[in-house]
Design brief:
Number of strands: 4
Largest sheet: 4 strands, antiparallel
Distance between the termini: 54 Å
Helix content: 55-70%
Length: 333
């Protein structure tokens, strides 16, 4: 029975639909943290959200007839959409259109949530430090969920991909540099009219805004890294069964993971047996166990967490290869 041909096309289609649905829902709290927490506190974070926030604060009162519901400022949803479209065109010409497909979806969904979720006059979390910590954590977890489903919110992700295509600079470094520059630019923003009577020291207010922005960025990157590492943890399976071929075919088709067959022999029975070896993500473990149980309820299964898996379908090995390293430091060998 060919389980791959029987089930995999339907399974693959459902996985794609599920991923798009998760991306759509995950970008809701992402936008909510901006409109309910960061904008009311005048916090400027990193990424395209920070750029759009700067434009929003800088244009307050300039377009009262066009955008009356936003205090006459250019709304974040509009600037986010326009800048992302420009970046996507550049990315399509340099990186390739394949990267842009899900990013286009993420960009329009994010603009939709920015437009639908109203900006609060009073922040959802009143204390600014708590707002940066809690809001940043939820912001980072939302972004992690989007990334784990092969999605993107656009912005500095696109810039990092374009720069990385021409320079040997890691995506993380490019994004950190962009975030740092954007947050520092918030120093040159004027004090909002709504807070002009309450602010006694303008310099102190601007420095605090930078510190809040850095605090929010540190919080969201820490939450992003923590959630990504938890969800991307890998496991290794050893499956001993007389129906190893059926199990291997099903795992390969339904989970879309490579399978290695090892030759084994039971010492008590002296019978030869093929051992199914699988490396997968931890969240894929329940599906693999269900497959084994449905095919051979008497199978012997062992699985354990592994600290690192590198290769196709998993993480990439970071750093330069040995030849590049030695050439760069000691000359050609």
């Amino acid at each position: 029975m060919d389980l791959h041909n029987l089930y995999y096309p339907k399974q693959h289609a459902l996985v794609v639909v599920r991923e798009y649905l998760v991306i759509f829902l995950a970008l809701c709290p992402f936008a909510a943290m901006v409109n309910w927490v960061f904008v009311p506190h005048n916090v400027v974070g990193g990424g395209l959200t920070g750029i759009c926030s700067i434009i929003y604060y800088a244009t307050q009162g300039l377009f009262p007839n066009v955008f009356p519901h936003y205090g006459g400022a250019l709304p974040i949803w509009l600037t986010s959409l326009v800048i992302n479209i420009i970046l996507l065109i550049i990315a399509a010409l340099t990186v390739g259109w394949r990267f842009c497909i899900r990013t286009v979806f993420g960009v329009f969904v994010l603009a939709f949530w920015y437009r639908v979720i109203p900006i609060r006059e009073v922040a959802f979390i009143e204390d600014p430090i708590m707002a940066c910590l809690v809001g940043g954590a939820l912001f980072g977890i939302s972004l992690a969920v989007v990334m784990l489903n092969n999605g993107s919110s656009g912005g500095t992700d696109i810039i990092a991909m374009v720069v990385n295509n021409y320079r040997d600079i890691s995506l993380g470094k490019v994004m950190v540099i962009c975030d740092f520059v954007i947050i520092l630019c918030s120093y040159f923003l004027p004090v909002p009219d709504a807070l002009a009577d309450k602010v006694t020291d303008v310099t102190d207010f601007k420095l605090k805004r930078i510190l809040y922005g850095l605090c929010m960025t540190i919080s969201y990157t820490a939450a992003l890294d923590w959630f990504m590492s938890r969800m991307r943890q890998s496991v290794q399976f050893f499956i001993f069964s007389s129906k190893s071929a059926e199990i291997a075919t099903a795992v390969n088709g339904l989970v879309n993971r490579g399978v290695t067959m090892l030759e084994g022999r039971g010492w008590f029975s002296k019978s030869p047996m093929e051992v199914v070896t699988v490396l997968a993500r931890k969240h894929e473990s329940p599906l693999i166990l269900r497959i084994v149980k449905s095919i051979d309820p008497n199978a012997f299964v062992s699985y354990a967490n592994v600290s690192g898996v590198f290769g196709r379908g998993f993480d990439k090995i970071k750093g330069k290869n040995l030849k590049q390293h030695e050439t760069g430091n000691h000359g050609t060998i």
